[in-house]
Amino acid sequence: MQFSDIIGQKEAVNRLSQMVAGDRIPHALLFLGPEGSGKIDLALAFAQFAMCENKQGLDSCGQCRSCIKMAKFIHPDLHFSYPVVGSKVKSDDYLTQWRSAIGDNSFMNINDWLQLIGAANKQGNINKEECLNIIRKLSLKAFEGEYKILIMWLPEYLGKEGNRLLKLIEEPPENTLFVLLAEQQELILNTILSRCQLVKVPRLKDEEVIQGLEKKGLATNEQASSIAFLSGGNFNEAIKLAQKNENDNATLFLEWLRKCYKGNGVDLVKWVDKFAGIGRENQKYFLKYGLHFLRELLLHRVTGSNALRLGPQEKKTAQNLTNVLGPEQIEDISHLLSEVIYYIERNANPKVLFLDTSIQLHEIIRKKRAVGAS
């Protein structure tokens, strides 16, 4: 991956390329930005430039022995760490799947990755064994390159295990670089944050998404324009929209809202029984979609704007719901869904949790109807 291959992110590219060209590379960097903004690509291009044996101005040559290995993610001095499932499992156990995954779609999210490795109902983490393995690997001398580089995707999943890496990050072995790729700064230990230089990676602009889709041959200009608007700067979502017309989570969420609106107990129980089996990560991703839908619904409810980042069917449903849900009810539902995400992460029983949530949703909707009727 070269900087010239990056979709958008010109400010981050310029800053990172100047660091390497000027030989002013911090030993620990934190790339902070939302899902689908291109953090993995930035990290790969940065690492390839740092390792390049024949640097060309502000980018790697792409042709030297090091660049060829980096492009295949097989350079012996390039290490990866990412969430997996299980207390004894290390990232290296899934290295083949990881290389294939980032080669296919480096914009993937955590749910995509965990489903790819068969996580099913389990949640991902970066565990004690992984931290000890990182310490062991980085204590060795570099095999071929000038640096040893660790790219850690989603350090939020370290939790308190991050304390094991504090000394290593603060006082790393010579020519050792840490590149952490994060989406939720508040979930990272402050002691880790304080040891890293921050690089902000914003959402992609619509025109950057359009250019990226066209460059990858995923959509025509007209199609790409529509997809870019709906994706909201998330290139992972843009790829999925380009590959299929309907958003599965959109269909499922709207079905759930309709059933909660009707309040048929038998139908709700059947829906919950089926939904409980899709796995915790899928459930969390579904709820995050729901929060996105509610934000767009609130925008339409308050401003009357039809410029919503929703598909045609979603937009039609949102417009219909303005007669059912007021701003306070939308806020109540959003708060409820955020709480459900919290409980899922703490291994609440999904059947009990989602049946209770469905009942509460029904009550919120009926409360609004009663107020309107009066």
Protein architecture, described:
This protein is an alpha/beta fold and 374 residues long. The protein folds into three domains: 200 residues, P-loop containing nucleotide triphosphate hydrolases (Rossmann fold, 3-Layer(aba) Sandwich), CATH 3.40.50.300; 41 residues; 127 residues, Up-down Bundle (Zinc Finger, Delta Prime, domain 3), CATH 1.20.272. The chain contains 17 helices and five strands. The protein has a five-stranded parallel beta sheet with strand order 2-3-4-1-5, with helices on both faces. Helix 7 links the parallel strand 3 and strand 4. Helix 9 crosses helix 10, helix 12 packs across helix 17 and helix 16 runs antiparallel to helix 17. It is globular, with a radius of gyration of 23 Å. The termini are far apart. The C terminus is likely disordered.
Which properties best describe this structure?
3 domains, 374 residues, disordered C terminus, Rossmann fold, five-stranded parallel beta sheet, 5 strands
* Number of DSSP-assigned strands: 5
Strand content: 5-15%
Distance between the termini: 62 Å
State the helix count: 17
Structural class: alpha/beta
CATH superfamily grouping of the largest domain? P-loop containing nucleotide triphosphate hydrolases
Q: What is the second-level CATH architecture of the largest domain?
A: 3-Layer(aba) Sandwich
Large-scale geometry = globular
Largest sheet: 5 strands, parallel
Spatial order of strands in the largest sheet: 2-3-4-1-5
What is the average of the pLDDT values? 90
Gyration radius, in Å: 23 Å
CATH topology of the largest domain: Rossmann fold
The first-level CATH class name of the largest domain = Alpha Beta
- What oligomeric arrangement do these chains adopt? single chain
| Topology as a string of helices (H) and strands (E) | HEHHEHHHEHEHEHHHHHHHHH
Domain count, please report it: 3
Helix content: 40-55%
